[in-house]
# Entry
Amino acid sequence: MKKSGFTLAEVLITLGIIGVVTAITMPVLINGHRDKAMVTHLKKSYSTISNAFYSATEEYGSPLGWGLGDRANTVGRDKLADIFSNYLDVVERDENANLRLKDGTIITFYVESPNCSYRPFKSCFQIYVTLPEAKENNSFPFAVTETKLIPYGDDDMMNDPYWSSFEAYKAGRCSVCFTGWVLKYENLDYLRCPDKLSWTGKHSCK
# Structure
């Protein structure tokens, strides 16, 4: 009786096809998993630093009275780190007053305006949240006003054409203006197909 089976050539061809399919699909699967982890982490960080800010305002009052000083000064930056350290699970603070939290998140402070008037939000300072899931495109800014945190790329920001995320991104003005996008649409597709996306149109590369 003649035995049925695969020839060596057929096996090699099949393995080659499997290898090609794997090479195509694995990066997509990895990116998808990483994106989901970053979205989840960013949402958690947004809640954490918002709660810390509200606790700080209850104890210290409005940021107008925190004595932060002029834009980008280090004394105000250090003061912000001092204040927020009281309400965050900090495991390390470096020489630039960056706070590393227990979950690996890095919190960075940047003073914008001593009288809380920096455009487009009338913000007092910025908080940058850097996530550990990726080595690049992993920093997400929030503008902090007298009363709340506003994600960069939030709907409020879209009312200012100069800072509108996709236009600013293409013009090189704001490569990190997509915090609001990630929180709202739960993806990082602006990194992959920005020419196909818009705030009022398509929200995914799919």
